[in-house]
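User: structure tokens for this one?
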Amino acid sequence: MKKIILFPLIVLVLISFKKGGKKEFQWKNGAKAAICLTYDDGMQTHVQNAIPQLDNVGMKGTFFINAPTGSSSVIGWKKAARNGHELGNHSLFHPCPRAIGWDEEIATENYNIPQMLKEIKTVNMILENLDPNRKTFAYAYPCNHTEVGGKSYIDDLRKSKLVSYARGGSGEKKIITPDFKDLNKMQVHSWAVPEDTELQELIDYAEKAKEKGGLAIFQFHGIGGQWLQISNETHQGLLKYLSENKTDYWIASFSEVVAYIEKNK
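Assistant:
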């Protein structure tokens, strides 16, 4: 009788573990993949277009901002935070390399690591005022570059404890797979969506994540205007697709997803 009772339990234990005894990773709510919708540079088109579109379908985005200018911008970001969107740190002056058109005074070649960390600390203070309920912040590397003065500041940023997680990125449509063997929480990959990308390409990226059971992080800039933009219609089309397939995808903020991975991997 004991053998009959124990056998199903043994089978269940074996099924729940991969080869080698490691428990199989499961996304929240039984989803087949996770999606993060992230937006860089704290643009007005985020406040005017992206956030209302997200609110209409009940989704939360992550907005990596610099220093907001003007009272309307401040009010917009405060409202976004109250509505559950994540506000992240994108540095104060957004330094990038001269090779991609940045002026010498704010080019990464002329920065040093203490200067970069000071900028990040300054934006943290701004974020604390915009979103006083958030205790820790995420960071996105300006122009996806992780060096200043010819040196990487990834490890210095980690040691500073100014931010919990950091997002990098490139034009590569890389999916973060559920083994997470290459996941560095201080340089999490995202796909930098090119200007005028069409809807089907965005959907294909999400479906690739579903196929692999992994995580896809979109890195958007302008929505319906400004630089590196995609159209309002394209953005709304992606949100519509994700809404219609919400049992397949867990859509959450960048920090929420990375924290979940850290806890459950």
